[in-house]
Amino acid sequence: MLHTKQEAPLNYKFGFITDASPIKPLNFSGLVLECQFDQDNYQDDLFSKLGIQFPSEITHAYKKRKAEFLAGRYCAHLALSYFGLMNTPIPIGPNRSPLWPADIAGSITHADNLAICAINNKPQALGIDYEPTIAINTANEIKSHIINRAEEALLSKSGLPFRQWMTIAFSTKESLFKALYPTVKQYFDFLDAEIVHIDCKNHKLVLTIKCDLCTAVSKGQLFSGTYRSHREGIITLVEHQEFL
């Protein structure tokens, strides 16, 4: 169960973490937490100061990558503390995905100066993504790589602006990849999943898998997703498989 009596210490940290707080769930039974950070104030010694293990995999990474990684892990550590899990390591797994403690499902996303973590004590597929709203020129350029014609017909009738529904589609499929990668253990394409339903009133979507990805995730399986506007973009979350 989610611990509410002992809240995480949401305070400024060394000028790097400038704000941290829960955000409104997206029809999600767990916790969504965000941290704002200042990349200009990043230093390698912040890992030890913030109680985060410095992984060898990012030793030679650019400052931006290190800052994003640290903010994401700090956000995840705060989220775990809400569940009574203090100072719990979150190593880097395959495809750079986080390795969560047993009986915990989690996902991290970051963009610009924002890191967001979703976490639940239901160890099932979970993926979260945040994307600033895609510029219209970029949306037109990438459209054919993200959605098929059936999706374009569906989403264009949603009543949402083109830039917004393209951002929702891109981000939802990113969330689906994060949710499924620990199971399928391979890359798959944006076009290997298709949005077959969107409910703009309740901010929900349904996706279907277009090909067999592994024995546990096969062609025709359906997954539920949810989305909402946040700051300058869109947050999407795919939590579990839904047989409809």
UniProtKB/TrEMBL annotation:
Keywords: Enterobactin biosynthesis, Transferase. Gene3D superfamilies: 4'-phosphopantetheinyl transferase domain. Pfam families: 4PPT_N, ACPS. Pathway: Siderophore biosynthesis; enterobactin biosynthesis. GO terms for molecular function: transferase activity. InterPro entries: 4-PPantetheinyl_Trfase_dom, 4-PPantetheinyl_Trfase_dom_sf, 4PPT_N, Enbac_synth_compD-like. Residues 126-206 form the 4'-phosphopantetheinyl transferase domain. Residues 58-119 form the 4'-phosphopantetheinyl transferase N-terminal domain. Transmembrane segments: none annotated. The keyword tRNA processing does not apply. Belongs to the P-Pant transferase superfamily. EntD family. EntB, EntD, EntE, and EntF form a multienzyme complex called enterobactin synthase. Involved in the biosynthesis of the siderophore enterobactin (enterochelin), which is a macrocyclic trimeric lactone of N-(2,3-dihydroxybenzoyl)-serine. The serine trilactone serves as a scaffolding for the three catechol functionalities that provide hexadentate coordination for the tightly ligated iron(2+) atoms. This is Enterobactin synthase component D. It comes from Microbulbifer variabilis.
